[in-house]
Amino acid sequence: MLELIGHTFMQRALLAGTLVGILCAVVGVYVVLNGLSFMGAGIGHASFGGVALGFLLGVNPLLTAVVFCLGTAWGVGLVTRKTSLREDTAIGIFFACTMALGILFLGLTPGYGVDLFGYLFGSILAVTRQDLWLALLLTPAVLAVVALFYKELLFVSFDPEMARVAGLPVDRLHSLLLVLVALTVVGAIKIVGIVLVSALIVAPAAAARQLTEDFHRMMWLAPAIGAASTVAGLLLSCWLDTASGATIVLVATAFFAVAAALRRGILPTG
Amino acid sequence: MIVELDRVTVAYRTVTVLEEVSLKVFRGSFLAVIGPNGAGKTTLLKVILGLVRPVEGTVRVFGRDPRHLGAERRAIGYVPQTAAVDRHFPLRVADVVMMGRYGRIGLVRRPSAADREAARRAMERTGVTHLANSPLGRLSGGQRQRVLLARALACEPELLILDEPAAGVDVPATESLYELLRDLHKDGLTTLLVSHDVGVVAAFVDGVVCLNRRLVAHGRPEEVLGSEELAQMYGCAAVFFHHGRAPHMVVARDECWS
């Protein structure tokens, strides 16, 4: 175990994992409180189409994934506004369409093999120096945007109509939130994988919600749980020789289960 | 004059919700818009708040189109129906009240000492100071309504707009809420509220507007409440008894629900 931590790849994975755990959880607070969990899953899965297109074109798959995630966020908003459909229906359409495109692109790409597996399910070995740089840039950038628009994002999440009456640019703030979700998904893909990324966004924030009735406290608790989940999950996956992404998500889920039990008095509170 | 509607018509797709409604709210007045469910009361408020655009007619709030009010927006305090507010959102009362200041504080900035002072005064005025640290989810209907009122007052409005302030609030709490509104009005706050509860409102306001898609009647409470128009609006004979402080409406059951 200690030996493993001495390896560069493990240090890189732990650092990237901590950053991504914090990032996902902070954005996750807004996702959970706005009822956007399915949107998170939709944007997460949309990245599959983007990653596959990256393989086909021979460019960095994360770049094409950003385009797909942002495109889905924008497209869902457009379809919801222009038709009488509910948002979850629009997400359902984009979810399937982007996955189908991904499968089509992969069929056209010769020999994608091992790399793809890392994107789909996450892998510590797949965390490159570039991925670490991405996490090092993306996390502070997204957190800075959240800090700047902290009270506006809170107001829009709690009471969008009142926020509109107060003169806040509600639609633009909602779009900003979706852009943050899209960027977060891309930042987390290599750690937990496309399939599980939305769980890392939702679970720590949901656990934090169980532990407090105070928004500001939730904003500290969620990233703490997120970072603890990724670090503990990565170490556990090395120790038990299990898939890292799945282990991280299961640890985060365990945090949620314990938090929910504490809230309901099933477990004694200290 | 603070609010002026001139022949305002609102339609959602093919359904007409408001038809040629003209209305003036003068500075210092306390006006209640009453009408049955589905009469377009909430829509009327949304038109005034600039949330809904009329298909015909003009709206002026502080002399301007409410959808492009700019800084004048801060002069409107709005209390939505309590049911429209997410009770399960993790927020403490003080945070909710502070939101009333957000429009004034401006993007990116943090609340100042002056903002905290305004929020504190608003909580004191509505009697929720002792609840400042309580989570929103643990309040009663009446307490929640006072917190939302404190939020509206925190922006130091010239015009206060309330949507069904008595919904989900028990009778004693409703009376004391209306008493508070009357005191605020005495201090010079122009107040406009909508309610389907004809009786209680009338004892406190100085003007009543009856709305049922169209404007049915408009005048002082005692004029409007006994009127033929009101009876027609509710589609049955309505009689008002002055019982205690609040007139109560009694409708002849067999005519209405037979």
How would you characterize the overall build of this protein?
The complex is a heterodimer of chains A (270) and B (258). With 270 residues, chain A is mainly α. Chain A has a single domain (2-260), classed as ABC transporter involved in vitamin B12 uptake, BtuC (Orthogonal Bundle), CATH 1.10.3470. Chain A has 13 helices and no strands. Chain A has helices at residues 2-5, 8-33, 37-57, 61-82, 87-108, 113-121, 129-148, 150-158, 160-165, 170-192, 197-211, 215-240, 244-263. The longest helix of chain A has 26 residues, at 8-33. The radius of gyration of chain A is 18 Å and the shape is globular. The model of chain A has no long low-confidence stretch (mean pLDDT 90). Chain B is an alpha/beta fold and 258 residues long. Chain B has a single domain (3-257), classed as P-loop containing nucleotide triphosphate hydrolases (Rossmann fold). Chain B contains nine helices and eleven strands. Chain B has helices spanning 41-49, 93-105, 113-126, 141-154, 171-186, 198-202, 221-225, 228-233, 253-257; strands at 3-12, 15-25, 30-34, 56-61, 76-79, 159-163, 190-195, 207-212, 214-219, 238-243, 246-251. Chain B has a six-stranded mixed beta sheet, sandwiched between helices. A three-stranded antiparallel beta sheet of chain B has the order 2-1-4. In chain B, strands 10-11 form a two-stranded antiparallel sheet. In chain B, a hairpin with a 1-residue loop joins strand 8 (207-212) and strand 9 (214-219). In chain B, helix 2 packs across helix 3 (113-126). Mean pLDDT of chain B is 83; it is low at 236-248 and 250-258. At the A-B interface, helix 8, helix 9 and helix 12 of A face helix 2 of B.
